[in-house]
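Researcher: Let's do a round of design. I'm pasting the structure tokens now; please hold your answer until I've finished.
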């Protein structure tokens, strides 16, 4: 017997004995379902929330590299008196260092060179680099006490995205797709956009491992949109191939895949069928999505003129709003070049300018369209930066190394508590002194907003009930919820 046929026969027999006891019940249930459901939807199938979600959509803005919290949101005026003095060992307390600064003879304090002011009823301190953000602090929920064990980019980004420092697990967007499913038939449930920073002095490598479905069915992985050229490779038919020819080809391919699904029972075959059909529908939906000609000038007054340029952060923020409008469940945007080991003065102003007005525009745009209450916006990196300088130090410029012990993130909309400032760090922005929030706690809180009890939201894999929050203790931070 052909080995492939033998594998199919064995798998089919195994699946029959595993599931045979449910066949009659399944057939009876199918007779009661609407025809479209009985035949199987081509959109992502959902298990459904445990309770009513406050957030139906998520826009996750990941700042790749680790933004310096003390130059943006975690104001530490006492550090002005510590300029160029060594960080006390009682503060560092033997913390593990990266190889970039472990060989330094000194760890001189580098106070921020930027001015801060308090804003809004909440009194949130915000850097002068973020004037637009300062206007909306009462709509935002700040967490100044995030922390992680990861000190290098690869494991730290993976940890923040998937809940584990080892790659191969599903990311937050894939879990949202698995749990809540699709809100539309013509666009993916989960989309990734990689923005192009104005300054590209030191970018980090990022790739599809961050937005994969891991051990979840493949249909829950993200579709990555490109920032230049066709948004998706091969989305258009090649010359000489009409839509009718493409449809005929897909019908034949679906028939072949359908036979394979019947023989083998591999769920990835079902995913393949669904993705081919989605790709066909996207040939019409994606050009409409990415065509900004219908946007009025008032849109660009809100987001800034950079929103007209494909690939900029402002452009991806505008695209995120258009996707949410059309029912995309989860939009993940990455902006690189926050790894400020040196030249903070030369790089940070450009990074902040890239995000400041765009984030403001996104939030006000969603609010005006009645979408902010059901859309959770998340902003943050994978860790923070050190208060001591890496490399040379002057009052006008300095560098900052990786710092996992404390960093700042913020949320807005989607059931998060506006005007909240949660957590507190010491005068050095080095250690947390009040209300620590681990990545696991953050993930548990986001899942809560999406309608899931993180302890019960799992997927059976390798004999274990796998969870985004893992096996260690995680807590929903109630003070972050509206």
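Researcher: That's everything. Go ahead.
Model: Designed sequence:
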């Amino acid at each position: 017997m052909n080995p492939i046929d033998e594998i199919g026969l064995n798998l089919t027999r195994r699946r029959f004995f595993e599931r045979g006891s449910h066949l009659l019940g399944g057939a009876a249930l199918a007779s009661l379902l609407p025809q479209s459901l009985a035949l199987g939807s081509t959109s992502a199938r959902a298990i459904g929330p445990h309770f009513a979600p406050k957030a139906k959509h998520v826009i996750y803005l990941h700042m790749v590299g680790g933004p310096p919290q003390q130059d943006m949101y975690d104001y530490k005026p006492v550090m002005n008196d510590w300029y160029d003095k060594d960080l006390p060992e009682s503060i560092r307390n033997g913390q593990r260092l990266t190889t970039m600064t472990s060989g330094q003879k000194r760890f001189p304090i580098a106070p921020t060179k930027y001015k801060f002011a308090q804003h809004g009823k909440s009194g949130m301190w915000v850097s002068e680099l973020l004037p637009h953000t300062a206007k909306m602090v009462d709509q935002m929920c700040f967490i100044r006490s995030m922390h992680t064990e990861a000190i290098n980019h690869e494991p730290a980004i993976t940890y923040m995205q998937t809940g584990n420092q080892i790659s191969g697990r599903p990311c937050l967007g894939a879990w949202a797709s698995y749990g809540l499913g699709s809100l539309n038939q013509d666009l993916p449930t989960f989309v990734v956009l990689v923005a192009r920073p104005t300054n590209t002095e030191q970018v980090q490598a990022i790739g599809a491992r961050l937005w994969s479905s891991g051990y979840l069915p493949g249909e829950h992985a993200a579709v990555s949109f490109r920032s230049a050229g066709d948004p998706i490779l091969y989305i258009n038919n090649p010359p000489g191939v009409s839509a009718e020819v493409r449809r005929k080809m897909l019908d034949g391919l679906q028939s072949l895949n359908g036979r394979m699904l019947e023989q083998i029972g591999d769920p990835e075959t079902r995913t393949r069928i669904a993705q081919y059909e989605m790709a066909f529908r996207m040939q019409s939906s994606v050009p409409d999505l990415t065509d900004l000609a219908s946007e009025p000038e008032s849109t660009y007054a809100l987001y800034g003129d950079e929103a007209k340029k494909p690939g900029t952060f402002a452009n991806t923020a505008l695209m995120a709003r258009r996707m949410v409008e059309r029912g995309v469940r989860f939009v993940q945007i990455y902006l690189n070049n926050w790894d400020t080991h040196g030249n903070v003065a030369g790089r940070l102003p450009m990074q902040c300018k890239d995000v400041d007005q765009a984030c403001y525009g996104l939030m006000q745009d969603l609010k005006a369209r009645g979408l902010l209450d059901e859309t959770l916006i998340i902003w943050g990196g994978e860790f923070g930066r050190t208060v001591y300088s890496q490399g040379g130090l002057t009052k006008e410029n300095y560098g900052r190394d990786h710092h996992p012990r404390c960093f700042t993130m913020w949320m807005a909309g989607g059931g998060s508590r506006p005007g909240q400032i949660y957590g507190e760090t010491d005068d050095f922005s080095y250690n947390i002194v009040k209300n620590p929030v681990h990545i696991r706690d953050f993930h548990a809180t986001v899942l809560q907003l999406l309608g899931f009890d993180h302890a019960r939201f799992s997927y059976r894999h390798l004999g274990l009930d796998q969870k985004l929050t893992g096996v260690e203790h995680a807590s929903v931070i109630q003070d972050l919820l509206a």
